[in-house]
Fold this protein.
Amino acid sequence: MKITDVIFHDLNYRVKRRYRNCCSPWIDSRPASVVEVRTDNGLVGWGEGSGALSREAIETHVIGKSPFDYEVIFEALGQVRLACGVEIALWDLMGKALDMPVYQLLGGSRRSSVTAYASGFFPLEGGDHVEAVIEEAHRCVGEGFRALKLRIGFGREMDERLVSSVREAVGDGVGVAGDVNLGYDVATAIEVGLKLVPYDLLWYEEPTVGDDLDGYCEIKQALPLCVTGAEGLVGLRAFREIVQRRAVDVIQPDISRAGGFTEGRRIAALASAHRVGVMPHMFGTVIRLAATLQWLATLPEDPGGIHPTPCYLEMDVMENGLRTDLSPTRFDVEEGIVRIPDGPGLGVEIDPEALRRYAR
Ligand SMILES: [Mg+2]
């Protein structure tokens, strides 16, 4: 089996109602880079990455190679972030060629399903934010979610109001996490974190800027909360210091940014060696969702012990046709659980008509 072509699909979904987090401008579109890799035996592999490689890089390092040379190809491409989509598509192809799910090629699954948390609760344009968040929390719990991740970072009073209102609305049986999206300086992150301690947060995400590891260590020391971060990091080496210093309790690498399955496995091994948890970030198309599920099937509950870090799936619940309409394959949440696909490769089919519809 030889690779004959690599096609980058530049997609976009325009959201109907704009939203933002504490640090972003208003978000009105959800762009995505989807990669299609074709082979001489008619198989097609799909991946999602972050940007497109040059034609020259593809011709030199990918065309004519076997997908089973995935590690050599990935390293030859060099640019980890841009190579993620191709890397994921190679695993999809290997799985399809062997009629096995990707998790089987990664060493087997530790679970057939995973607990999903609803990741949303962004301020929407227009309307009362706290009311909208409470309504969304009720809707998500009604859909079966047993864990929710709120966007916070809007100042000490607003953050406490958001978390306490949701806690009151959903009760103690539903997990609630808070994502600051890098919004605070260290002193504010500690002050707000202390205010949130009584609400039993599952975790406190990205409380300050990602490159301030001293700051993360201070925050972690000051708070009896699980501190998480590193969703923006690219490649194994970028994770080295944050993991070695245990500046967070749990890292959140994104498979379509950190380096696909190849680099993702190395990052997870590094984290395991330092007793740091891994809980992947997932915010993208149905392909990234399927790839994340394959990876989640294989991650050990590590650190173990009585209270292992749970393997949560981040289920982006914001409006995005690239997650909901790009494939006829459904990833429904039932009783808070999502089944890991066991079809060949990533276990997701792509609708060519939808691919055309969302082309930029
Ligand atoms: Mg986040």
About this structure: Residues 105-339 form a domain with the TIM Barrel fold (CATH 3.20.20.120).
